[in-house]
């Protein structure tokens, strides 16, 4: 698409230069009257061919569904098609591109990798240098309906999952709720020994914490695709806050958390609350599979020098995951534990996907599990490297 529009932008300019070049290259030493007529025929044929090419490319620009703007080396609009006029308004040709940006664009907090126009539509900008002269060709693709459809599909999928959640809600909550009521009733016994009272109190609090955890999982899952409030985030800051938030549960389990911050710092565009909740979920999951002596590693690493992808990983030294569970571990309501909703890892996956990322899993029985959120960095080019190349499917290490 870019090449065709690029050629159209240059075709008219090339006509005169090609004709002049042809006149020079085909000019005989003897510029007699006899040689003038063949020379004129050659020039006319080349000029006619170039005009046909320019007409074809001009028609292509007219029927393209994307807006095309050609900006010269001075930053002024040299050419634009009708779709670009519909997006950006008039006038365009002869105007400074910087002026058009201020006039026609209105960035919003939830833009992500698109840019909002003043009328609310979202467009994706693709910018390519002109091939044979200073300047750029800018292609604007309308993603408004695409984003609405994606949001609608995500909403419907969550509604379907929430239906399953409601069906299992009574069973999930009944057990810890019944236990909590029993412990609470025992605490009403005035003759209860102090030691027993303390034990019942601890058990009551434990069951209430189970209930709170399940409700939080459900709320996170229900809202996992609604991260409209996004901002630039420092991963050093995010991981430091996650470490501080996990301190209490780490002390309770006598566990150790080793944090590796990215050096230099990495910036992403995201919802800090959602990402922190997903990472806390992974840490809590690691503590559940190894209640005593857990060593958990939290890290954020850019894949390689120059890469626009960062992997945030939580690794544990737990028992690992059986091979037959590997492809189901991120399914909503799938769990191998007697307690819990089975939503923890489903929440993590949903959060990663809502940030245009993905989630990956590596596990080895008897040695541990590593779960990674693969996220695009700030100003990531969607046409380039993406998260799905390595993390599309879970990878089992060992058996």
What number of structural domains do the residues give? 3
Specify the helix fraction band. 40-55%
The biggest beta sheet is recorded as: 6 strands, mixed
Shape: elongated
Q: Strand share of the residues?
A: 15-25%
Return the average pLDDT rounded to an integer: 77
The Cα radius of gyration reads: 31 Å
Descriptive notes:
The protein is an alpha+beta fold and 399 residues long. It has 3 domains: 141 residues, Beta-Lactamase (2-Layer Sandwich); 76 residues, Helix Hairpins; 171 residues, 2-Layer Sandwich (Heat Shock Protein 90), CATH 3.30.565. It contains 11 helices and 13 strands. A 6-stranded mixed sheet has the order 7-9-10-12-11-13. The C terminus is likely disordered.
What keywords describe this structure?
elongated, 5-stranded antiparallel beta sheet, 49% helix, alpha+beta, Helix Hairpins, Beta-Lactamase, 6-stranded mixed beta sheet, disordered C terminus, 399 residues, 3 domains, Heat Shock Protein 90
Secondary-structure map with pairings?
Blueprint: H1 2-26, H2 33-63, E1 67-72, E2 77-80, H3 82-88, H4 97-104, E3 115-116, E4 122-129, E5 135-142, H5 144-187, H6 194-222, E6 231-234, H7 235-245, H8 247-253, E7 256-260, E8 267-270, H9 272-289, E9 295-302, E10 309-315, H10 344-354, E11 358-364, E12 368-376, H11 388-391, E13 395-396
Parallel strand pairs: 7-9, 11-13
Antiparallel strand pairs: 1-2, 1-5, 3-4, 4-5, 6-8, 9-10, 10-12, 11-12
